[in-house]
Design a protein that fits this description.
It comes from Cercospora berteroae. This is CoA-binding domain-containing protein. The strands form three sheets. The protein has a five-stranded parallel sheet, with helices on both faces. The protein is globular. Helices cover about 35% and strands about 15% of the residues. It has a domain of about 150 residues: Rossmann fold, CATH 3.40.50.720. It starts with 7 loop residues before the first helix and ends with a helix. By secondary structure, it is of the alpha/beta class.
Length: about 240
């Protein structure tokens, strides 16, 4: 099946139109990305739900949060987006459960998927699945909440999507706290879920984007060496 161009920026913006955000892989361990990503939501006034079937609660920043075991246990799935920080085999099952539950949107962290899981997400959430190296991310490992989240929150305000009501009350428009803006914008931030991250671009990345990244890499290398092979590669890219 031929892949179509994906507007990942719009998908990321739609992700943040949700009223709630379930974090699959949320953990009490500060060294784990499930902990870091769950903690990222808290100061941004986002309703975060830890999803972890292995423990009844997690502790983040000195506070305990009750967990849910699966997407099917989320109380308001149609108004809930899902951050995924799990190994690819777990992600595959998780996405199936999320689809059956009616989850609004999904964001696959680097390291949480292979092409198979990303394709499934894009097919089942055609305008609300985020992941991979499609144009728009400022991170070096692909679309990541820690790196791209704040910009996506800002972008969500311009979508012609009415914010869903929560318990009969409309949530106010979200503002990224001034002291948090850009705090995770470094391209050197690691965003993988602790699993092996493939350096091979996803086939969902536009060809133009792939060539640009390869060309930049070659130019960076050429700044340090006069390697003839690199010059030949560059000539082929420009040809």
């Amino acid at each position: 099946m031929a892949s179509k161009a994906i507007d990942m920026r719009k998908a990321a913006a739609k992700f943040f139109t949700a009223s709630h955000f379930a974090v699959a892989g949320a953990s009490s361990n500060p060294q784990k990305f499930g902990h870091r990503i769950f903690a990222w939501y808290l100061p941004r006034d986002l309703s975060a739900i830890p999803l972890n079937p292995m423990t009844p609660s997690i502790s983040v920043r000195g506070k305990d949060y009750d967990t849910v075991a699966s997407p099917s246990k989320v109380s308001d799935p149609k108004h809930t987006s899902l951050s995924v920080i799990t190994p690819p085999p777990v992600t595959a099952k998780l996405l199936q459960e999320a689809k059956e539950a009616g989850i609004l949107a999904v964001w696959l962290q680097p390291g949480s998927f292979t092409d198979k899981e990303l394709e499934y997400a894009i097919e089942n959430w055609p305008d609300a699945a985020v992941g991979g190296f499609a144009d728009g991310t400022v991170g070096g490992e692909g679309w990541c909440v820690l790196v791209d989240g704040d910009a996506s929150i800002e972008a969500s305000k311009s979508l012609n999507v009415e914010a869903p009501a929560s318990n009969g009350v409309n949530r106010p428009k979200r503002q990224v706290p001034r002291n948090l803006r850009g705090i995770h914008s470094s391209r050197t931030d690691r965003c993988s879920a602790g699993h092996r991250v493939s350096k091979r671009p996803s086939k969902h990345e536009p060809v133009v984007g792939r060539k640009a990244r390869v060309k930049k890499h070659v130019l960076d290398r050429m700044g340090k060496t006069e390697n003839i092979k690199l010059r030949q590669i560059l000539a082929n890219l420009e040809g």
